[in-house]
Amino acid sequence: MDEPEADSLRQQIQELRQAKSRWQALAIIALSVLALVILAGGATLLTGGLLMRQRMREEGMRAREAEMEAREQAEQARIQAERARDAEMQARRLAEEAARQAKEAGKAAEPGKQ
């Protein structure tokens, strides 16, 4: 092998080494970008899941509060209905008592008329 041929081969080896280094750098950059994309996607899924869980918790709390409010309103309505029923019963008793007293007063006045 003569000297120009050896120089040509050395130059090709050098060029191939440089190309190999460029491709390795490009592969490392591509892997880094891919890793960042995967991490960003995972973080998005994780935070999205956490946010969804937090929203579900808040909605559950709101639903429980609304249920408690509805139960409280139902209890207030029940108490009010009981009071109205009691007042109606009291009014009936008073009316019956007044009617009985009026009847007795009418009977007591009748013997005096004769």
Measured between the Cα atoms of the first and last residue, the distance is 165 Å
Number of DSSP strands? 0
Please outline the major beta sheet: none
Shape: rod-shaped
The run of helices and strands is H
- Poorly predicted regions: none
**Over all CA atoms, what is the radius of gyration?**
48 Å
Task: Give a structural overview.
By secondary structure, this protein is mainly α. 97% of the residues lie in helices and 0% in strands. It is built from one helix and no strands. The model has no long low-confidence stretch (mean pLDDT 92).
Structure described in brief:
The protein is an all-alpha fold and 114 residues long. It is built from 1 helix and no strands.
List descriptors.
114 residues, single chain
Spell out the blueprint of helices and strands.
Layout: H1 3-113
